Every structure is written in C-alpha cells, then in structure tokens.
UniProtKB/TrEMBL annotation:
Pfam families: HTH_24, ROK. This is ROK family transcriptional regulator. Gene3D superfamilies: 3.30.420.40, Winged helix-like DNA-binding domain superfamily/Winged helix DNA-binding domain. It comes from Streptomyces rugosispiralis. InterPro entries: ATPase_NBD, ROK, ROK_cs, WH-like_DNA-bd_sf, WH_DNA-bd_sf. Belongs to the ROK (NagC/XylR) family. The lineage of its organism: Bacteria, Bacillati, Actinomycetota, Actinomycetes, Kitasatosporales. Signal peptide: none annotated.
Amino acid sequence: MSGASGPGANLTALRGHNAALVLRLLRDAGEDGISRPELAGRTGLTPQAVSKITARLRAEGLLAEAGQRASTGGKPPTALRLVPDARHAIGLQLDRDEVTAVLVDLAGTSVAARSAPFDFGAPAEEALAAATAEVRALLADAAAGGVVGGTAGGGIAAGAGSGIAAGGGTDVAAGGGIAAGGGTDVAAGAGSGLAAGGGLLGVGVAAPGPLDHGSGVLHRVTGFPQWDGFPLRDALAERLALPVVLDKDTNAAALGLVTSGTAESAAYLHLGTGLGAGLVLGGDVYRGARTDAGEFGHQVIQLDGPPCDCGNNGCLEALCLAAVARGDRTDAARLLGIGATNLVRLLDIDRVLLGGRMVLADPEPYVRGVATMIAEDSARASRPPVSVDVVERGERAVVEGAARLVLAPLFALG
C-alpha cells in the first residue's frame, strides 16, 4: 500500500500528516492494538511526538486502551486501539437507475445501508431531492437502530465541535473533531459538527463520469449531457448541510482497493449500466490531471462499429452493452477481455478485478473470458498472465469506496 506507515515528521506544520499516520497504524492493528513505542518505531516519530498525538486522539474519543503488551524489561507498554464507532461516514452511489447509500465506521465497516430507484436523467433538482431523501432515510434508519445519535437537519446530532474544517492538514481539532486538509477535496457544509460518539464526518459521492474530482463538477456523462458543468458536490453539500466529496464510481471502488491494501497495481473494471475502469498505480488511485483516467469504455476497438452515446463509433462500452442486451455473455466477456488486455499491455498492471451488476449477476463467464484473452496475449508476449478476479465486497465495492473518500484523508490515503 502506498506510503506505508512512515516516516513521520516532527514539525508542527506536518502534525496533521503525523496524526494520520498514527491513525492508520491504529486502524490496521485492529482490536489487538499497538503500543506507543511501536508507533514511534513504525512512524519514525519521537516518543514525545507520539504521546502528544495519541493524547489528542484519545481526548477526541478516537482511541482507547487495548491492554498491556508483554514486558521486555521495565513497565509493560500499554496497547492502544482505534474506536471504530467514534465517527462515521456516508457513501452515496448515484447510478443511472438506482441510488445506494451506506453508513460506515472508521474501520470502513458498513453499519447501515439502503437503496432505491433513481433517475439520473431527471431534472437536477428532482435528482438531488431523491439523493438527499435517501441520505436522510439512511440516517433515520441508523438512529432507529441505535447505531448513532439522533439526526438533525440531515446530519447526526451536530455538536459543539468544529466539524470538518477547511485547511490545516488532517489533524485533530481542539474541542472539535477531525480537521480535513486542503488536499482532501472535502467541501465545508454548515451544521456539520462532529458529535462525540458517532459523529458524522461527511458524505462521499460516487457518480458516473466524466467529472472533475477537484471541483466536484460533472461533465458530459455519457447519455446525460444535461449534467455538463453541474456543481454536484456543492449542491449536495448545501442540501445536506454536510461536507461532500465527489469522485467517479470506478475511482471510488479503486480507493477501496488502496485503503484495504488489496493491490499496488491493478485495474477495476466496472460493467453495469455503463463501462469504466478505476486504476491503482503504485499503490494510489490514478485519476489523471482532469479526473479523465479510466474512461475505459470509450476506447474505440471497431472503427466502423455502432454509434456510442459519447459521439464516437465502435466504443468498447457500446459493443459490450449490446452483447449484454442480447444475452450473449460469452461475447460480452470476450469484448471486456480485449479492453482488459489493452490495459494490461499499456500499464503493465499486476491484477484485474471485475465488478458491476452485469458481472456480479453471473461472474464465472466474465472471469473466464477476460482471463483467457489476457492469457493468450501474455503467451504471445512471453510474459506471465495477470490474475483476474471478482472484486471484494461485490455490489458494495463502489458505495463503500465512496464512504472511504471521506475516511481516506484521516489515514493519509487516497
């Protein structure tokens, strides 16, 4: 995984980064926890710096003691562990015909989820109202189930804390929760405080591309040109009174691979109502300068092929979805395999992961078909084939990845 546990830095200006490194190690250690000396050794921070950081994290309710380690001479060190339910994040997936929402804790574990029909082709205000209603219904479900405190204005028991503040690096804000840094693309929302015990960090939204992850603006989504230039992130932040971060659905799934340590070099191929890819290169999600990387479905593979909604002819997406529509999974898998082979050749990746509702409805022919195409090409090139598997978390890969868009900055990821 990119940027392993260290090294840290003992500079005040980087204390947010150091706190994120400590939080990541606490998260990775699980229930067994990790001691302060181990944290210092893994991050390269001084024991004094680690003590200050862990004291702040404990004051925020983000960590607790997990028992004592065996003594190696002297006083046995105390292990510390992350408190997963100290904070939560929402993941929201906007598909062309369905909206899915999930609430996860700091460990990325889903604690509530729901979905409903959704019309991406509806007028913006109508679509936003449907998405907002789903988030509020999710929070109501979670509150009724005792997962978090009561809702207020679409958020979770907004407390006296400062919530997710813009600027300053990922850190623990005095008296107020996690402050997200300038590079996190988390938009500030009014009334989004982090209540002690279950506080809500924000909403990560996964939507079809193309879009601009940095500005939170949609571009000409294939088949839905009316969204071009729409500031979806800010519009949802205003409606929900919560911080919001937006990314492509495939990038959200790729972020899940990064934050779970699944792959250093991989492509996530998503075949659902469209076809796209999320790329993990060098242990990080690769978005490109304009968030245009991974427009996998719009590689032209047949010059005289059928028209695609993007305006070109013979796009992989158009051909693949046509095969799915006529019930020919073998041809759909072959076409997907052609695209995957091109990607493996181009990027020299180690792994291909398949997802999306069309694949998950019957994974075996897709895995077999894609693996066969890659293996045949690898044999011609005298190199070992890469592995092809179904993505972990299946149908939840995108929406849980969307929630991790909010969580990742806390752990110096993404």
